[in-house]
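agent> fetching stored inputs for the 3-methyl-2-oxobutanoic acid docking request
agent> found them:
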Amino acid sequence: DKPLSINDITTMKRKGEKISCLTAYDASFAAVIDKVGIDILLVGDSLGMVVQGYGTTIPVTIEQMVYHTQCVSRVRKRAYIIADMPFMTYSNLDDAARNAAQLLQAGGAHMVKLEGARVDCVRFLVEQGIPVCGHLGLLPQSIHQLGAYSVQGKEPEAAQKLRDDAQKLQELGAGMLVLECVPAALAKQISAELTIPVIGIGAGIGCDGQVLVLYDMLNIGVNKRPRFSKNFMTGFKCVEEAITAYHLAVKSAEFPGLEHSF
Ligand code: KIV
Ligand code: NA
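agent> prediction call returned; pasting tokens
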């Protein structure tokens, strides 16, 4: 199959075809995920937790993100590759541009993802021709401000702010949006309000696509599997079958169920 572009992903949203996404941090898993037909490979800074064993994503560096993005991009044939900008690598515009460029140039990513309604930063990167994915709701890089990995946007004001921030990111030229741990009804509404694809994690079935942390859905995470995730190894003997089951469950809108949603 030919490599997917941002246009192909956006067309899936327009046609109502669910978009499948999984995290990947190395060549072997990336190759299996790509072969199965998953649409997007996310080199997430969750690697700080599931690969490096830290308790948060905060220690992850840009050098490590470039390294893991290279491992993934070397073997990828079809999937669109998004790489996370780690904590404090986009705290000013110059740093943001330099670090995003590294993920694209050295890493081989097609788009970078950053957490929060970072208006100036998103505008600047888009002006430089760098594709940007927003990330709203639960922001793991702000865990010490948030206090807990909990559902976001439950109060009416917080829900309205999420809708406004999502709209703003789209206006500024973000090409995609990840919504993490928000009520399913709110995520559905935001997905309907935006023309860019909205990929949910713990955000219910109403999003345009779904993403999970690979090691959680393979049930081999060092941390307890979050409620919104699912053990896709159940009933299967090999990783490729489990990933295929996830891909099909996303495409057929069987995952996430109510038990994985808020
Ligand atoms: O780092 C990551 O894996 C992510 C997803 C959870 C969206 O940002
Ligand atoms: Na992340």
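agent> quick read of the result: The mean pLDDT is 98.
agent> awaiting further instructions
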